[in-house]
Amino acid sequence: MVDFVAVVFRSLHIVSAMVLVGAAFYLKFAGGNRPPMPYIATPAALLVATGLWQMMQAVAAGVPSRWHMFFGIKFLLALHVIAVLVISALPKTDEAKRSRLAFGAAISGAAIVVLAVAMVALRQGQ
Ligand code: HEM
């Protein structure tokens, strides 16, 4: 039986991740205008909410100790990505600073995805 709630939360998490990390790559490599704050704040809030839910499900089911280590690193990198994109959405942030900050967020975002894939593999015993 498909756990519908888990599918919805996992999908919301991945789509929100695509929006934020995609924004970082776009701001760095395509320049582009200042993103509207709701465009950053909404996926950021969804990422934290669905991420915490997934974390509680995974820990309740039991995960290897390395999963916790990866989660901690992933969470810190996520805070970096979210903070940088919120700063890039502020009116006082100029384009040069936005591009510089976005480069760091793009790298952190890519590293997060690698960590997430490793966490899923660890949890599934691969
Ligand atoms: C920019 C920020 C973030 C990105 C790009 C991101 C990306 C991802 C991706 C791609 C997955 C794998 C999805 C899958 O195959 O199931 C994932 C899983 C997960 N994420 Fe995030 N995430 C971010 C932020 C967060 C935050 C803030 C939290 C916690 C509050 C979090 C907690 C989790 C958890 C617990 C999992 C499940 C891992 C597992 O199934 O073992 N994520 N994330």
Describe this protein with a few key phrases.
126 residues; elongated; binds protoporphyrin IX containing FE; 83% helix; mainly alpha
Structure characterization notes:
With 126 residues, the protein is an all-alpha fold. It has one domain (4-123). 83% of the residues lie in helices and 0% in strands. The chain has four helices and no strands. It has helices spanning 4-29, 37-61, 65-88, 95-123. The longest helix is centred in the last third of the chain and has 29 residues, at 95-123. The protein binds protoporphyrin IX containing FE. Protoporphyrin IX containing FE is lined by residues 10, 13-14, 17, 20-21, 47-48, 51-52, 54-55, 58, 74-75, 78, 81, 109, 112-113, 116, 119-120, 123.
Task: Offer a concise description of the structure.
The chain has 126 residues and is mainly alpha-helical. The protein has helices at residues 4-29, 37-61, 65-88, 95-123.
Write the layout of secondary structure elements.
Blueprint: H1 4-29, H2 37-61, H3 65-88, H4 95-123
Helix pairs in contact: 1-2, 1-4, 2-3, 3-4
The structure holds protoporphyrin IX containing FE (HEM).
